[in-house]
Amino acid sequence: MFKNINISSLYGPENKEREITDKAIFKAANEIGFLKISGLQNFQFNERSKKILLSIFKLPEESKKKLCRWYFENSNQNVYRGWFPLQNGLPTYKQGIDIGPDLVREVIHNPNDPLTERTPLPRESELPKWRSVAKDYYLSMESLGLVIMQSIARSLKIDQNYFDKYFNKSNSTLRLLHYPVRDKISFGKNSDSFQIGESYSLGKPHVDSGLLTILQLDHVAGLQAQLKNGEWHEIEPEEGTLVMNFGRLLEHWSNYKIKATFHRVIGYGQERYSIPFFFEPSIDSFIKPIDELGEIDSFKPFFYGDWLWEVTTQFIEQSGIKHLRKKVLVKSD
What we know:
The protein is of the alpha+beta class. It has helices at residues 16-31, 47-54, 61-67, 130-155, 184-187, 191-194, 248-253, 304-312, and strands at 4-6, 34-38, 82-84, 95-99, 173-179, 195-196, 199-206, 212-217, 223-226, 232-234, 242-246, 263-267, 272-279, 286-287, 302-303. A hairpin with a 5-residue loop joins strand 9 (223-226) and strand 10.
């Protein structure tokens, strides 16, 4: 169902093998919206690296509080990036941290725009080698994202570098997630509605908001995608592969040639970890319809930062902050 596509040919020159890979990626993007990929170039991420990256969840609670967002720890200044704790009584039950591009490059902070704030991170003395591993992973995912977007551009019959400029100052997010085993307290008064057969809800059904999500799974199953017939299908973890899916913005931007698919996370009584990377344009990118795709379902142009803020502040982990950023006036061409 979710085909494993070896993408090694995408790193080489134009040839028949690359064309076959482009078609396979686009077919999955168009029909299912999810796929597995392998054959990455210059990607040195192993179980030891993963263990170091996920060691952030072993920090003492006091250290986690220092990383928390303002909504959860009012003495902190960061509102968009940083740690979010477990919240009981909700269909989504996870904790984690959202890390921005300041991890790998200088970002000029605009005090009026939370999207440009620095990410609070653990000190080197707390988690030795953590920052180095996190930086390497972030940069690898940025490189991979660009390669995939170039493949998508070729399949859309536009210049293969059409999307490149939007990622010159990428606002991508590296997210580290932990889904503990749920108990009765975490369900609150909603235990019946959160039960899914013999399993239970850890992440409510949703569609990702942006362009491209690249996901590193652990060995514990739980991620499910909704097929066209409404059925939920398990995406089984597979050694040496990454899972990829597409967001609502790319669905619109591609004139619905690419599918943004609903997905959810369910629990089977085991704790679970995952590492999603949201490959995002710069916040000042001006998104407008692609002329070559026609105007079958055109949309009004907008700045990516405005889109991002509007959609992400609707998610549980971004509660209570929507009023903290003003929309940018749309420029005239």
